[in-house]
Amino acid sequence: MLTGAPSSHMSSSVSSSDRIFPPSRFGSFESPGIGASSSFSWHGADMNEYDETDLFSISWNQDYSCFAAGTSHGFHIYTCEPFKETFRRELKNGGFKFVEMLFCCNILALVGAAANSNYPPNKVLIWDDHQSRFIGEFTFRSEVHGVKLRRDRIVIVLKHKIYVHNFKDLKLLHQIETLANPRGLCCLSHHPNTFALACPGLQKGQVRVEHFGLDVTKFINAHDSEIACFTLTMDGLLLATASVKGTLIRIFNTMDGSRLQEVRRGIHSAEINSIALSPKVQWLAASSDKGTVHIFSLKVRVSGEDSITHPNSPQGPAPFHQNSSTSVDPFVSPNTGANPISLLYCMRGILPKYFSSESSFAQFHLPGNTQFIVAFGSLNSVMIVGMDGSFYRCSFDPVHGGEMVQQEYVRFVNLKKSQDKYKPVISSQ
Q1: d(CA 427, CA 185)
Q2: How far apart are CA 204 and CA 179, in angstroms?
Q3: 323-366: per-residue pLDDT in tens?
Q4: How far apart are CA 191 and CA 212, in angstroms?
Q5: Which of 254, 227, 226, 255 is nearest to 241 (CA)?
Q6: Phi first, then psi: what are they for 421, rounded to 5°?
Q7: Could you tell me how far CA 237 lies from the centroid of its own chain?
Q8: CA–CA separation, 273 vs 214, rounded Å?
């Protein structure tokens, strides 16, 4: 592991193809023929034929319909509803520490593991599974701590700097300086008409939000302690954060930096591994090293279904609905007829004290010695993926809350006994 401060010098190379091929759905993935790729060898998706492996990382795709697992032999891709291994690619030597999907298409970003000399941890490779070849790469003088994808951008996270590249031609568009960021914290919005990026700021407890297109930078002093985890809504208008203390999770308006709500995971310190927001921002889920996934009811709403679906739910006073046009319309391209994010309503500066530090609405208990990432599924369900190779699907009662009910459990990979010698990495959007 490289510990020196990363250099700002970076080189990239592009294959002879100067464009990204139109994404294929999983059903269109092509198995490479013999000799088609010197990098990967194809293995079928029979879950009963797994060899023992080391699990380096797990990460959701952008809409939480799939997740990727980076292993000591390559990577596996899984769909979640229904749960199924879709495909895997395996190397003759070494594996991948980071595997970032681009929704459900054929493009992935890969970062090698420390033990892999062919694909080192200071290089980002863009893999096109449709063509069965790498179509671009970025090489740095120090270790890559994370990579994020949008349909139009590639974002690479180093310890002190973030690079934003154009996806079409791989040109460097932006460089962002950050506080030391060994966790590789960075998240993006994924609405086609907005581009927001959240990353650590230059001070402890601070989150920087870049609204590209608007040329707006907002620094949010989210916590007194170091930031441990955060996530954005799909449109980038809301930010949820947690510090290394792990007791409080806060939700902010990214346009003006105002705090909208605060919820309490517990009174004792914990490491929060992931935070997820439901698609209509009615619920927040958080996982921690205490072995409990907590669901919180949010007072920030979108208009429509979620605001009326559960009128008897113990939500407290009705949320204040502000016309969103003053703060949201600039995000939306005037050339598009669709304006879904203009439906968002936020409370601004009206939070009474009894809204602060609310306890969780529903809970699910897990083994406490494993890292988990969470995401919302359909029909009031939560999906949980663990670094122990486990997948859970649980349901919660949207009216009464309480203990969640386990609906599904799958052991998706068998781990080697030597797993403990590797430091696992988990990533959420």
Answers
A1: 8
A2: 8
A3: 333 344 444 333 333 333 333 434 444 444 434 567 899 999 99
A4: 13
A5: 227
A6: -80, -10
A7: 16
A8: 31
